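Treating backbone geometry as a discrete language has practical consequences that deserve illustration. In the encoding step, the backbone of a single protein was reduced to a row of integers, each denoting a local shape. The amino acid sequence and the backbone structure tokens for this protein are reproduced below.
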Amino acid sequence: MAQSNYLFTSESVSEGHPDKVCDRISDEIVDLIYREARKTGVDPWSVRVAAETLTTTNRVVIAGEVRVPETLFKKDKEGNVVKDKSGNPVIAPGRFRSAARRAIRDIGYEQEGFHWKKAKIDVLLHAQSADIAQGVDNAADRQGEEGAGDQGIMFGYATSETPDLMPAPLYYSHKILELLAKARKSGVGEVAKLGPDAKSQITVRYVDDKPKEVVSIVLSTQHLDPSWDSQKVRSVVEPFIREAMGDLPIADDCAWHVNPTGKFVIGGPDGDAGLTGRKIVVDTYGGAAPHGGGAFSGKDTTKVDRSAAYASRYLAKNVVAAKLADRCTIQLAYAIGVAQPLSVYVDLHGTGNIGEAELGEILREVMDLSPGGIRKHLDLNKPIYAKTAAYGHFGRKPGRDGSFSWEKTDLTKALKEAVKARA
């Protein structure tokens, strides 16, 4: 029997965490290529990106495979496209370097060990492998629809315990860091002396399977004034933590751990190397749901690691929003070059008012779950990904630019009608 009274903990990391700096740069690359495709009239459906970023002390390395508009190729003095020994066009590094520098500056790094202007940036992007490309392109020629860019399993999750249908420990962990980042960037007050690198962690007490109170708060944040100690940092950040908690009470005996190791001046990639895709649990559900293992950032949406994870969250959120269940986990599975998912698994955790197998069939009816169908339904072929790189890909507000379209609850009517038709 599942527990109903328990403690559960999730963590978040700020946009200045070394791994998140890498996620941001990788997603800036995705956005740059989609933006350039739109600008030059190239079909955005043809864009392919698999970009990875590494950061360390004043150094950024961007590597990966891409299919880009010709305007991003390197040209010789006569204006001809430069090609490598294999005959593939060489990617011009300049605009990718500029995108990385803008991202680092926006995050707020102007430190001796990591500075947006001084960091050396290597761009090692090259043309996409023809063997990988055929999984998507040739599959479309054979079967009339785009195949998955890789095999894999993806999970989506939703729960009624917070307004955005996210698990409470992660929801509030994100909120703390978002508020601190906004205040830091405002340049007003002592909070402006905090650095970009930070981590939060919240432990919530559940009673009858519902969030009751916060019993532990952990926050480690970089600070630029070396004279500050843990007590000073707590005095600066505590008002923002309490604001972030909103209606969720902080227990009278809550354990506070603010900068528990003491001084935290050296931060970001100068303090620890970063790499794209190392914060996948922070990006999703904070450990409250399974994870298929695939990272999101730096990938175009032919990669089901990204697009199918968005689709599974979209479906799970709409199931809960339609009041078909209080909690919902969905798994989708794909094979490279194959369009339709191999399986659709639904778990309503004993909270549903419909059979899980039946709901799985309904989900296939109300949404085309092929990669092409997902990209079309959620309108994913856009430069909307840099803003996903920090504070979670889920539980965010849909934007007018088409960002976070997978957070909409516009499928509830179709779900309710499909359920009613089977009654």
Summary: Residues 18-40 form the longest helix (23 residues).
